[in-house]
Amino acid sequence: MALFSQTLKSECVAIGMANYMDSSRVKETKVGCSSLSCNLGKNQFLHTDRAGMRYKRGHGVIVATGPASEAAVLATKPLTKEDLVDYLASGCKPKEKWRIGTEHEKFGFELGTLRPINYKQIENLLYGIAERFDWDKIIEGKYIIGLKKGKQSISLEPGGQIELSGTPLKTLHQTCDEVNSHLYQAKTVAEDTGIGFLGIGFQPKWRLKDIPQVPKVRYDVIQNYFHKFGLPGKESLVMTCSVQVNLDFSSEADMVRKMRASLALQPLATALFANSPFSGGGPNGYLSIRSQKVDEVDKSRTGMIPFVFDDSFGFEKYVDYALDVPMIFVYRKNKYIDCGGMSFRDFMVGKLSAIPGELPTLNDWENHLTTIFPEVRLKRYMELRGADGGPLRMLCALPAFWVGLLYDEVSLQNVLDMIEDWTPEERKALRKKVPKAGLRTPFRDGLLRHVAEDVLKWAKDGLERRQLNESVFLDALTEVVRTGLTPADRLLEMYHENWGHSIDPVFKELCY
């Protein structure tokens, strides 16, 4: 199989910024029916308050349960694998149109009791942000499940974690400003009701039974699927928080190089940003228990996807991988239909037993891709997913780290040269050992920390060559590499030396 698919005999065609955002995210605010002429029902209508009208509870934007999307018409002919390959390839764009997208999750908690906030408190929070800072509400049935403003969205994860999905932006200064603005708005509303936000990778104190349920039908289906993987499957959905960066590529060849570099270094990123050493009220023996939990569930849709390092890797090879990942759901007529591990390949020939005879659309393909969770996920852009949630300085450092390495040709080539002779066994061993050992993970004749020293220098050099004064965002990582102490190591030091072996001070230490 050639590196360049038969459908891609030249460089990928660049597309506009409207396609940068995953269309599943864009379509989340669409009316949950096939046309605007549908009957919305009593008190269910679309409106904005641009002219001064204030929203009332029970009204708002009526949407499909996000982030699923549904085509306006059903497919009349089968999708081909070429269609799926072309979908990924449509993300290619010239360097001048490359952007930086950031996403981060956080736990809401009661300042007085430190308990996780329940859905009613989340509901009040979302309504407060919408009304005070002019966000559009996203309503599912009678429940508010998110907010949207332009290309930004605020959504809820299965355990009530609050996620900001940011606008694709040109510079790291803009991305950090966006995070700052979001946290200011959320805190302004939350502090009036005694709510704080915790920047950490795993729920440090409370048990699974204490975590609130979010009334999103999509999550009912997903949790039903992941429950077959036992406690780690449940915990990975409702008790974890991560931060990720979304980056572009110019061609299939550029995508391949960036996928290989970022996957090989994902364990290093996990170590640098490790920030989840506590669970159940004390140390858990890991620096990133979040990363460990993710590694314990559904090997078919998580992990290091080693085929990326094969000579044959390209868009087509990723499509083949995604086709073989069991389906979780299909979305039809505003409803999630449990597919329980059925095959997308069968779906493509009308043999999906959940909806026999129906053929998939590209919307179904988009939805399927959102249910795959490797360390680096390929859509029409790349999602780098291996870092724990953390404090603001680390939220700004993650995109800086990856932009410096992947958006600069010299730094990217330095990484590729370094990892060229890394074996599959070495990459797998790093992924296994890093959640517990962090930068102290043995690697060849030294430690992973020694690899970090070179890689961080290349990231800084790459940012300097952008000439946008962005290397300042790497200062937090400079301290981590200099000392060899990850954020989790620092927390454990404070737990043993300053906090009297109490977990409660972490809520103050990492409160935004």
TrEMBL record:
Look up the record and name the pathway of this protein. Sulfur metabolism; glutathione biosynthesis; glutathione from L-cysteine and L-glutamate: step 1/2
Q: Does the entry annotate any disulfide bonds, and if so which pairs?
A: 176-396
Record has Flavoprotein as a keyword: no
A GO molecular function held by the record: ATP binding
Q: Where in the cell is it found?
A: Plastid, Chloroplast
SUPFAM superfamilies given in the database record: Glutamine synthetase/guanido kinase
Reactions mediated catalytically: L-cysteine + L-glutamate + ATP = gamma-L-glutamyl-L-cysteine + ADP + phosphate + H(+)
Q: Which keywords appear in this protein's UniProt record, sorted alphabetically?
A: ATP-binding, Chloroplast, Disulfide bond, Glutathione biosynthesis, Ligase, Nucleotide-binding, Plastid, Transit peptide
- Could you give one GO CC term from the UniProt record? chloroplast
Main location, first listed in the record:
plastid
Q: What EC class does the entry list?
A: ligase
The keyword Repressor belongs to this UniProt entry's keyword annotation: no
Concerning InterPro entries, the annotation shows: GCL_bact_plant, GCS2, Gln_synth/guanido_kin_cat_dom, Glut_cys_lig_pln_type
Q: Name a Pfam family for this protein.
A: GCS2
Mind listing the GO biological process terms from this record?
A: glutathione biosynthetic process
Q: What is its EC number?
A: 6.3.2.2
Which protein family is named in the record? Answer: Belongs to the carboxylate-amine ligase family. Glutamate--cysteine ligase type 2 subfamily.
Quaternary data: Homodimer or monomer when oxidized or reduced, respectively.
Q: What name appears for this protein in its UniProt entry?
A: Glutamate--cysteine ligase
